[in-house]
Amino acid sequence: MYNSKVMEAFANPQNVGVIENPSGEGTVGNASCGDIMKITLKIENDVIVDAKFQTFGCAAAIATSSTATQMIIGMTVDEALQVTNAKVVEELEGLPPQKMHCSVLAEEAIKKAIEDYKSKKQ
Ligand code: FES
């Protein structure tokens, strides 16, 4: 059901874990399946220098969070806010249609973590 790029990201996920004292963190749940994802970010001068995730979810959720964290490291927070689930799925060369909802978790968790960072900064 999954292509080889998704299987590779699932079998060998990058950036798994939690950053201690993160600049921002976001936890989201997927209402349709009950899965949960937490993303923690280390941000310096509005640039994401590290990102880690913990996903209690399916293969698609793990593959998309691994890929999404890889994509946003090195981006400014405003650039990272433009990373949609569709862009992450494009990077993974597609997901089965019934698993598209799983990719929304990473986008939402990143947005929440950046909001947390921005609210702490004020
Ligand atoms: Fe829950 Fe995929 S089935 S995130």
How are the SSEs placed, and which strands pair?
Elements: H1 4-11, E1 24-29, E2 36-44, E3 47-56, H2 59-72, H3 77-80, H4 85-91, H5 100-121
Antiparallel strand pairs: 1-2, 2-3
Helix pairs in contact: 1-2, 2-4, 2-5, 4-5
The structure holds FE2/S2 (inorganic) cluster.
Residues 30, 33, 35, 57-58, 60-61, 102, 105 line the site of FE2/S2 (inorganic) cluster.
Structure description:
The protein has 122 residues and is of the alpha+beta class. It has one domain (4-121): Alpha-Beta Complex (Sufe protein. Chain: A). Helices cover 45% and strands 20% of the residues. It has helices at 4-11, 59-72, 77-80, 85-91, 100-121; strands at residues 24-29, 36-44, 47-56. A three-stranded antiparallel β-sheet has the order 1-2-3. A hairpin with a 2-residue loop joins strand 2 and strand 3 (47-56). It is globular. The structure holds FE2/S2 (inorganic) cluster. Residues 30, 33, 35, 57-58, 60-61, 102, 105 line the site of FE2/S2 (inorganic) cluster.
